[in-house]
Amino acid sequence: MSTKKIRNFCIIAHIDHGKSTIADRLIEYTGTLQKREMEAQVLDSMDLERERGITIKAQSVRILYKAQDGEEYILNLIDTPGHVDFSYEVSRSLAACEGALLVVDAAQGVEAQTLANVYLALEHDLEIIPVINKIDLPSADPNRVKQEIEDIIGLDASDAVLCSAKSGIGIPDILEAIVNKVPAPADKSDQPTRALIFDSRFDAYKGAIAYVRVQEGSIKMKDTIRMMHDKKDFDVTELGIFTPNLVPVQELPCGSVGCIAASIKNVADCHVGDTVTLANNPATEPLPGYRKAVSMVYCGLYPTESKDYENLRDALEKLQLNDAALEYEAETSLALGFGFRCGFLGLLHMDVIQERLEREYNLTLITTAPSVNYKVYKTNGEMLEVDNPAKLPPPTEIDYIEEPYVKATTIVPKDFVGTIMELSQDKRGEYQSMEYLDETRVSVVYHLPLSEIIYDYFDKLKSATKGYASLDYELIGYKQSPMVKMDILLNGDPVDALSIIVHKDRAATRGRALAEKLKELIPRQMFEIPIQAAVGTKIVARETVKAWRKDVLAKCYGGDISRKRKLLEKQKAGKKRMKSVGSVEIPQEAFMAILKVED
Ligand SMILES: Nc1nc2c(ncn2[C@@H]2O[C@H](COP(=O)(O)OP(=O)(O)OP(=O)(O)O)[C@@H](O)[C@H]2O)c(=O)[nH]1
């Protein structure tokens, strides 16, 4: 089969610019699915994704389109995740395509995330078709946005498709543009097979399923496939394409997009970015660009009820089957008991996993404050990677510590440049460059410690710029920093799960702020609870939670008994997500308090 009638494309867009809505319209217009079959937004399949309105895992769909030239084309739409945390998956999805729709909101214009994705697409030599969406909005200004696309990205936007996914305007033009502008895949069917895995999923019956783009050769039923990086062989049990429901096929020919089931027990054997070849005629080199997912953020997850430990382990195991980027290992905390240290791609990934554990597996969890991974060089010449503050060796054993740094690109209206600089400086940022994108907007680049980004940089950025700033960041390496461990003592005892690693110049202020915050969060108990923040043996802050009962009930003026009972019940309910540490009850919020403190 020739590849001439195939077009593989993806949609890149900033969050909320309308990627999913456009995908739905393309599917609807071509009759790929009947309207009644369409759930609202087919491509975002997970419940959580729908609720949060973001794409977490890529999906793809085959669209049959009869073009104006009278020919029928196979358009494979490969969906890309829409969040910074998942940029590696985006890059693999792009590598599976020849073209990309660049969707830009007609009112908002080009944003940081758009830029990051466009640069990725250009790196992969994709043909880019600009689409200006939401032209129905009263605030739409397509001409300004066209100009921005030309000035900022340097793409010719003169024949950008004007579209309103909401009302269906421009959808036929998008389909024609895909057929006419996106190149057909190169026909390399006579070469040894190489297929790129751009996504994977776990199916309880079929095992891990690889979503692939066949770059060279082909894959047939009953072939034995080989994962080139993992060097493992599997017998194909099923090949399929998505319409978007899975339809079995006998062959995935060169240029096509589809999925492979091969009784692969674990998604960890089916890495996004790996190359599939055939065991009886293997290719010599894998496709370029393979990278293992790296965790950026770590936290401890502990069941509030210790009897749930095994359930939590089972749940993590199941989630990991579907999500090769999730890492976990058992750990114990003096304060919290048995739990797991988990690694995530970013804060959103962490939130999503936490929420799924609670919702789908019915667990109540205590989560410790997120931490990054530090490289600790010890005086004995050893290097330790530490992602849990409680595990930092004593200062006498430490020669120096390195922390991860990111390159953070922020795009803001020019009035906010001062604010961004102040904020970044305050977060130990190092100024790199600034560029006027047009008369109104500026792109500012800083090198920042990852730990500052995960604390509250993004929230602060959003509030300081009234939501106008957009942020994109990538890991650039490690740098030496004078970091110290700060312990929190409750009632004189250090609580390991509350320890944090901070820059030594910030320890005193953070310690004071944290102690104050903890004082608000820890409910009064029968006795006074001193809260202390300490670096080594030096106490940097102290607060006291006063003893409770009479205070709480005092508010009732000794009167109405039902009111009293209600109050006590409210306190009891509040205890659900609490953990007794020694004699002190600590609520979940306390463990995350560090994220909420003001410097
Ligand atoms: N007025 C108007 N609203 C639109 C249009 N297209 C999409 N929207 C709305 O914009 C919002 C975001 O659209 P989505 O399609 O979910 O955006 P997305 O880019 O897929 O978002 P992510 O999945 O997070 O990347 C939704 O509320 C849509 O209803 C349009 O043409 N006009």
Write a brief structural summary:
The chain has 599 residues and is of the alpha+beta class.
Features:
Elongation Factor Tu (Ef-tu), domain 3, Alpha-Beta Plaits, 25% helix, 33 strands, 5 domains, binds guanosine-5'-triphosphate
Describe this entry's structure for a reader.
- The protein has about 600 residues and is of the alpha+beta class.
- It folds into five domains: about 5-180, P-loop containing nucleotide triphosphate hydrolases (Rossmann fold); about 195-280, Translation factors (Elongation Factor Tu (Ef-tu), domain 3, Beta Barrel), CATH 2.40.30; about 295-370, Alpha-Beta Plaits (2-Layer Sandwich), CATH 3.30.70; about 375-480, Alpha-Beta Plaits; about 515-595, Alpha-Beta Plaits (2-Layer Sandwich).
- Helices cover about 25% and strands about 35% of the residues.
- The chain contains 14 helices and 33 strands.
- It has an eight-stranded antiparallel β-sheet. It has a six-stranded mixed β-sheet with strand order 2-3-1-4-5-6, sandwiched between helices.
- A hairpin with a 4-residue loop joins strand 10 (about 225) and strand 11.
- Helix 1 crosses helix 6.
- It is globular, with a radius of gyration of 27 Å.
- Guanosine-5'-triphosphate binds near residues 13, 19, 21 and 44.
